[in-house]
Amino acid sequence: MKVSSRKTGSALSHAPVSWSAVNWRKVERNMRGMQIRIAKATREGDWRRVKALQRMLTRTLSVKLYAIRRVTQN
User: Fold this and answer.
1) Which residue stretches of 1-74 are H helix?
2) How many CB atoms sit inside 10 A of residue 27's CB?
3) 4 or 42: which carries more pLDDT confidence?
4) Over the stretch 7-55, which tens digit does the pLDDT of each residue have?
């Protein structure tokens, strides 16, 4: 039986393989973009969108990686 070297079944196919493989500039850009979208929705008073964006922000892989990095550096 031949075993494939390709990973299958992972929901996070775009997840970095190692900590050093993370593109930190892209992570920070994604996080800042989300924060800007939340601030804009807040200024516009679109509270439904604010709540949805906040939920999306807390569940985003980029933000989780950034938070872990900040905690380990402090």
Assistant:
1) 24-44, 47-59, 61-73
2) 19
3) 42
4) 554 445 567 778 888 899 999 999 999 999 999 999 999 999 999 999 9
* Cβ atoms of 68 and 19 closer than 8 Å: no
Burial classification of residue 13, based on how many CB atoms lie within 10 Å of its CB (0-12 exposed, 13-18 middle, 19 or more buried)? exposed
Amino acid occupying residue 59 = R
The b/e string for 41-71 (b: 16+ C-beta within 10 A; e otherwise) is beeeeeeeebeebeeebeeeebbebbeeeee
Model confidence, pTM: 0.71
Contacts of 53 (CB under 8 A, 6+ apart): 34, 37, 38, 41
pLDDT for 18 = 82
